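Weekly puzzle thread! Below is a chain. First person to post its structure in token form gets bragging rights.
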Amino acid sequence: MPFAHHNVVNPDGAGCYGPPAFHLGLLATLTERWDEAEAHCRFALAMFERLGAVAYVGQGKMALAAMLLARRRPGDRALAKRVVAEGLGIADALDMRTLCRRLTALQASAV
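Winning reply:
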């Protein structure tokens, strides 16, 4: 995909929206293209971490955990639990209540 590994920024420099890979990961998850979903989610998460975009790291962890729980391969549930816990730590520290609720729902489905 062209531009999947770039960052989307507002033309006037007022905002950075991260890599298109994040949204491609969500789409690949919905269409059950698991290998692509995992690659996009992991790339986006790594990009968010390199940027120091902590709030986006939390969202990236939620996307990765949701993909793992939907995919259901051996080891995915255990990894998803760990990723959700990391995301909850970030969301709680930043007081991101909506993200906390969404991650808590994922955590409940991972039991």
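Puzzle host: Confirmed. Bonus trivia for everyone else. The chain is about 70% helix and 5% strand.
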